[in-house]
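Pipeline run #58 for the internal structure catalog. This entry was flagged by the ingest filter as a single-chain record with no existing model, so it goes straight to prediction. Upstream metadata was stripped on purpose; only the residue string is passed forward. Reviewer on rotation: M.T. Logging verbosity set to normal.
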Amino acid sequence: MRKTRLWLTLLAGIFLLPAQAKVNAGDHHAFWLWSAVRPQPVLAQAQSLYILQGQISERRGQNQFIPQGITIPHLRHGKIWLTYRVETLHWSDAIFMSISQQLTRWQKQGNPVVGIQIDFDARTLRMQQYVAFLQRLRQQLPTHYALSITGLLDWSNNSSPEVINQLNGIVDEVVVQTYQGRKTIKNYAAYLPRLAQLRIPFKIGLVQHGEWQAPDYLESAPFFRGYVVFLVNN
């Protein structure tokens, strides 16, 4: 009888746990727009768009810039970030020039471009190398453009906040991704507490239709700046 009562108590506790809410893009105002993702009505409410525009990779010892993403639209509202998927930190002057030319073309079309975003999976052991790269990039980027980067969840647990905070003054924001591919990382909540210790503006990256339960302390973190949703095809 005692065992039966114990199991009933455990089952009741499970069913009383808060359900993980699905990410509804309609509740947000900042989005990633990646290649092959069809436009959605929710884009009409966007205040910030992070639009993929290229990949920087290395093949046979040579780095290369591969244009990707949508062609130059005519957007008149909100903020636009040109986003680049980066596989190597060894950039030639030609790559810096290609990005500069893209920024100029988007500006000439009257689009409200505010800066660029670097999407690079910088592992904790390579953080110092990444910081040095970002310092160089910041020097190459015209001062009127902002610099955004994506961040991995394990930065918060495997690296001290001081290491990440040294990016202050180099980048304008970090968008910490809570997903891999098209799915939410299962134990994402375990990484969140230390994010509140950051002293650099940060956002949380969510994947559309993924799972998310916002902790109470996040909204009160002094450098928290909201969410960015990675749109997917329904």
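catalog note: The chain is about 25% helix and 30% strand.
catalog note: The helical segments are 2-16, 93-108, 127-140, 155-158, 161-165.
status: ready for reviewer M.T.
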